[in-house]
């Protein structure tokens, strides 16, 4: 048997993740469905701003195989303007409250401590913070809860992160070093390691066709030393896929997104953050069947 198949068959399963009301395990990669309640997100902005439309989309994603829902009230695409606090709260809190009884974990995509607190009170199970809980007040907002923490790597800040070519000496090593520091800081401050998952931040201060693909090719290498934390991958419909396929519109990048999901599953991702839940779920079922066949062939 080839080394490639052996590596796939023996791939390490990440440690369980305490995520609010849920304990997530990773015998297979989990699918996080993206629910943007924003007018300006890069792919589906404006489609689900209305509460009823957002709830209907959530129900569809759950039916299609979403294991987690990630609710966002502020676009973090490159160059996106910040959203006032009250407006973000008005967008996300009614949706969280309405979805609390769906039986799946609810993640809130925010970097604002006030939104974190309100979301946890409303029923959120995870805080997905593009700043990696580095902003003032973020740690205090989550420390006394049982929520999961998704710590993302970002070089720069959303408004300007892609205006100049990002520079790394070694992007994989630097992302891993960032995770080492964040995990150490959070755990020393009292956050249990089993509450933390890690997102290398595809497209957040990375060059489109070099840094993003170096991270994808060496995805498992971002894992902190001597840790086995869940790694989350968010590449769905992003410009890194359009750059190699020539697809200029995000809605045209479904096939590329599914291909990227399979590639990163092969490289150890525990959670896929995606727009296209049904297509991703089908692809991962095929990938899982091949993996199980490889195990039987040993």
Which descriptors would you attach to this protein?
298 residues, alpha/beta, TIM Barrel, eight-stranded parallel β-sheet, two-stranded antiparallel sheet, 10 helices, 10 strands, 39% helix, globular, disordered N terminus
What do you see in this structure?
This protein has 298 residues and is an alpha/beta fold. The protein has one domain (3-296): TIM Barrel (Alpha-Beta Barrel), CATH 3.20.20.20. 39% of the residues lie in helices and 14% in strands. It has 10 helices and 10 strands. It has helices at residues 3-9, 51-64, 85-99, 113-122, 138-142, 171-188, 211-217, 239-245, 254-266, 277-296, and strands at 17-19, 22-24, 30-36, 68-72, 106-109, 126-129, 148-152, 196-199, 232-233, 271-274. The strands form 2 sheets. The protein has an 8-stranded parallel beta sheet with strand order 8-7-6-5-4-3-10-9. It has a two-stranded antiparallel sheet with strand order 1-2. Strand 7 (148-152), helix 6 and strand 8 (196-199) form a beta-alpha-beta unit. Helix 2 (51-64) crosses helix 3 (85-99), helix 3 (85-99) packs parallel to helix 4 (113-122) and helix 9 (254-266) packs parallel to helix 10 (277-296). It is globular, with a radius of gyration of 18 Å. Residues 1-10 have low confidence and may be disordered.
């Amino acid at each position: 048997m080839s080394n490639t198949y052996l590596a796939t068959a023996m791939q390490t399963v990440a440690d369980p993740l305490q995520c609010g009301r849920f304990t997530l395990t990773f015998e297979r990669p989990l699918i996080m469905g993206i629910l943007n309640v924003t007018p300006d997100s890069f792919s589906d902005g404006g489609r689900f701003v209305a509460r009823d439309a957002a709830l209907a989309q959530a129900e569809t994603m759950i039916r299609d195989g979403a294991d987690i829902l990630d609710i966002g009230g502020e676009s973090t695409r490159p160059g996106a303007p910040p959203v006032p606090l009250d407006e973000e709260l008005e967008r996300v809190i009614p949706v969280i409250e309405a979805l609390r009884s769906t039986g799946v974990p609810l993640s809130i995509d925010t970097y604002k401590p006030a939104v974190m607190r309100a979301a946890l009170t409303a029923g959120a199970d995870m805080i997905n913070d593009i700043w990696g809980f580095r902003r003032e007040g973020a740690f205090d907002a989550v420390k006394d809860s049982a929520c999961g923490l998704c710590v993302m790597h970002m070089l720069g800040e959303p408004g300007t992160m892609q205006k100049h070519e990002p520079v790394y000496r070694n992007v994989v090593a630097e992302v891993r070093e960032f995770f080492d520091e964040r995990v150490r800081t959070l755990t020393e401050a009292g956050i249990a390691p089993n509450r933390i998952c890690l997102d290398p931040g595809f497209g957040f201060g990375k060059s489109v066709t070099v840094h993003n693909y170096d991270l994808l090719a060496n995805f498992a290498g971002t894992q902190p030393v001597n840790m086995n934390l869940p790694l989350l991958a968010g590449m769905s419909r992003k410009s890194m896929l359009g750059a190699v396929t020539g697809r200029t519109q995000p809605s045209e990048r479904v096939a590329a997104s599914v291909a990227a999901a399979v590639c990163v599953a092969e490289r150890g991702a525990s959670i896929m953050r995606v727009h296209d839940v049904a297509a991703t779920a089908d692809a991962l079922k095929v990938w899982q069947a091949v993996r199980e066949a490889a195990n039987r062939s040993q």
